[in-house]
Amino acid sequence: MSEVKTYPIINNPQYKPHIDEDTYHRMYQQSVQDPDKFWSRMAHQFVDWFEPWEETSNVDYNKAEISWFKGGKLNASYNCIDRHLKDKADQTAIIWEGDEPDQQRYISFQELHDEVCRFANALKSRGVKKGDRVCIYMPMIPEVGYAMLACARIGAIHSVVFGGFSPEALKSRILDSDCQVVVTADAGVRGGKQVPLKANADEALKGCPDVHTVMVVKSQNNDIEWHTERDVDYNVLKQDMQPECAPEVMDAEDPLFILYTSGSTGKPKGVMHTTGGYILYTAMTHKYIFDYHDGDIYWCTADAGWITGHSYIFYGPLANGATTLMFEGVPNYPNASRFWDIVDKHKVSLFYTAPTAIRALMAGGDEAVTKTSRQSLRVLGTVGEPINPEAWEWYFNVVGEKRCPIVDTWWQTETGGILISPLPGATKLKPGSATRPFFGIQPALLDTDANELDGVASGSLVMKHSWPGQMRSVWGDHQRFYDTYFSQFPGYYFSGDGAQRDGDGFYWITGRMDDVLNVSGHRMGTAEIESALVLHESVAEAAVVGYPHDIKGQGIYVYVNLMKGKQGSDELKAELIAHVAKEIGPIAKPDKLQFADDLPKTRSGKIMRRILRKIAEDDIENIGDTSTLAEPAVVEKLIREKL
Ligand code: WTA
């Protein structure tokens, strides 16, 4: 990594950064020397409490037991809305930009308050109470935010399921956390195409007998099936609902939400976050990492169905009283200037997106960018996967015109908020590096024997100490929480990622070390896709690996061994690809599918993915040792038959 480019800290004369380099070092030292003292101070500064906590933290990684601010009472929706009403009732809280460029809505904090209270009262009218789980399967319309905050207001636990997931995926998530109420919309619309959410929900609910209420937001006003005993037209119900609803008093450790994410086994995990630590951590990271100042217009392009949408469209920015923009559409509709047109239209100053979007826009050429102004932009962020230096440089030079620092933010669904990232006024930048840990975060690199590596090193990325935004459990399966994150390296939280540390102490994330793929920034377990494939009557066995993909970061490469007597054909290939999309959702659609009479296995029958990965990557020279295979000839055949 010797010829890495380094960019000095950019000083913007109009903005004094919240954190400069000296402050970063000073606060970082405080945060790791006496974490409880540091986090206590921050918790007073960033969060409004109804009652103070009794114990700042209590953490035992050997039992996977984590608590922060126990005994403290607060409400997340109160922190995101009510406390801003005194000064900011008329300030825009949410800017909504629709799929078509002429669609927008501006929702003030007062309106947000009234809408969230009505939604909360509507949920209550259907029997929802503290601790109940509510599934939210919605397009990117303001009501998704109202529904989330309404749950938070009454102490219900939301489980948002990404609108791109299939009925099957939705069903398993509803069942896993026993949601009895589902909030959805007739349809979403992205790039001019409708997504039939209500029809998908109807399909899913055939297998969910305990769901008694489906709250439907009619957004597109199209024809949908209606089940009178179960379906409620939210816009009608809302008319009778009062715009006042007292926030439930919650303990800091009461669950706020569940969000499913993929792991290395077939079944997605319900990542559970609690209230106090999460609100503190998302608010604080949002303020410092984007250097948020009052008056900024902040836009995160994520979907509400992912953790980035939870933490950095809704909870973090709203807790800071920010104006947050949400967008229902896609980057290239109606044309490749759409992002930058939105930036100009709403004078966006802080912009946060994913490398996959940057790469796709970069491939479309500079002109779509350069013909727009973008003068309002001040900080640019990226998240979701490693950003390659070429894409970083393009984002920095062409989009930001060398004026805007890039914050490459590394974190996970499990971490609740950003753990490693530059701070705009405090960190020099190196394209491709997430740079340094945030306050209170103590990363380490371990070798396979769990030894901590010093200085310049490469290893498994772990955290030595808890932080308030950390997940607390896997819903319904605490043992799995322990097994997944704390068993391999006792005493540490293991992220599942590998990383390198350079001479400046900067971190470079190298990607997942387990069987999890990162396709366009979406996390996907290879086992999930394999399980979907073997459900098909023609498939005997399947193995899924990732391979480098110019735009998506990783593409999905599938090897399929057919049932005896079945013949591979282009039709069957198309059918199997469609089958995966139907079982999981379009985001899991395989990019390449190869029929294989046999898969390389060890003598004990374990599929050798390492070899399949090399074949998929076209890295035949580095296939390595195949002598431990039961049938070494299988490999030759796979290479020969590769598409
Ligand atoms: C990857 C998204 C490199 C990483 C917030 C992690 C990244 C997984 C970065 C979590 C980044 C996320 N650089 N890799 N800046 N950000 N990742 O749970 O592999 O959807 O473990 O959370 O994305 O994905 P998740």
Automatic annotation (TrEMBL):
Keyword list, A-Z: Acetylation, ATP-binding, Ligase, Magnesium, Metal-binding, Nucleotide-binding
GO molecular function annotation: ligase activity
Domain Acetyl-coenzyme A synthetase N-terminal, chain residue ranges per copy: 24-80
Modified residues annotated as N6-acetyllysine in this record: K606
Pfam families: ACAS_N (PF16177), AMP-binding (PF00501), AMP-binding_C (PF13193)
UniProt record similarity statement: Belongs to the ATP-dependent AMP-binding enzyme family.
Protein name as it appears in the record: Acetyl-coenzyme A synthetase
